[in-house]
Amino acid sequence: MDAPRLIRRQVHYLVVLVSVFLAGMAQAQETITIGINLPLSGARNEAGKNVKAGVELIREQVNAAGGVKIGGQSYTLQYVYGDNESEPQKAVSAALKLITVDKVVAIVGPIDSSRAIPAGNICNSFKTPMVSPTSTNPKTTLNRPFVFRACFLDNFQGEVMADFAITELKAEKAAVLFNVADAYPRGLAEFFKKSFEKQRGPGSVVAFEKFLSSEKDYSHYFEKIVASDADVLFIPQYSDEIPAIIKQARKNGWKKAIFGGDAWESSDLMAECGDVCKGLYFCSHFGAVGAKGKAKTFVEQFEKKNGRLPTANAALSYDSVDLVLTAISHLDSLGSNLLDTRRAIKDKLAAIRSFEGVSGSLDMNSTGDPTKSAVVLKINDKGEFESYKILNP
């Protein structure tokens, strides 16, 4: 091949490469990328599926409406997913990759406190805003100005469930069974005990039984609980653990009321638990059955798209993305400096007030902890999670 022809071909290739590069730059500038840190595998994968369904619904709705508006310009919303495999270390690894490799402007998730606490430390250290949909442990946001949540805290949840046990279930004495090695159930169990004994007196929590993650036989704990003569049993564990625990409780002679925390809620709970869970109560952030207003619209849209009712994980994940987008929409422009953009989003998140989400209204503050109500759900005779009572702060 002669030299001029070779040069022309090289120039042609160079022009093509530059065009592709510029097209990529233009596309990047017209896109908002949020990271989603969730359990797509492992013990909490069912909850992860609900999170993904919730965030995908709002992504489709936002893009169908013209995208995210910033200073008169529209941006397409896209996600990068990080599967934390229901493991704390994997949640940290996912956060690091989303921040440093994928260069997202913000992260939604993780959902569970045991994953959200270490991942939140990474996000705060790298000054990247993170919104956890359902991590209720106070440590998630403590002294972390870049970390937020869309849900109430465990101290509030512990208080309202203690009140519920006393006012609705007429309990004088209570028992608690929980995994001492996991941050979420341990924290919630302690807050419940503190609140219950504040009202009923020291020692009114007559059994406070701690087990380890490796244990699957709870018989000796239930022997103590039954012998304690408690009126109610509080089990603040995750939904994948509840069926086995409830069945063992009944098998070992516990015939009284059982109730739990927000991690009970999962779309597959009743498939595993069956009739033995009907009539039980748990605290939650959202009730699909009997929803009204914006929540009802969300339920209808979610059910149409997914063929099932949304759980609290889906609703709060939807709201978490909406919170990030609300903060972004209040920016004057999307600057070229990613660190400045992340910091600006953090500031706008902390300033959000009177936010109307599908899981209810909230006021955010600089600590990242919103003021929100809780809902007590009852598992009715149809196996549905039915709104029973709203408990306000």
Automatic annotation (TrEMBL):
<feature type="domain" description="Leucine-binding protein">
    <location>
        <begin position="31"/>
        <end position="383"/>
    </location>
</feature>
<protein>
    <submittedName>
        <fullName>Branched-chain amino acid ABC transporter substrate-binding protein</fullName>
    </submittedName>
</protein>
<dbReference type="Pfam" id="PF13458">
    <property type="entry name" value="Peripla_BP_6"/>
</dbReference>
<feature type="signal peptide">
    <location>
        <begin position="1"/>
        <end position="28"/>
    </location>
</feature>
<dbReference type="InterPro" id="IPR028081">
    <property type="entry name" value="Leu-bd"/>
</dbReference>
<dbReference type="InterPro" id="IPR051010">
    <property type="entry name" value="BCAA_transport"/>
</dbReference>
<keyword id="KW-0732">Signal</keyword>
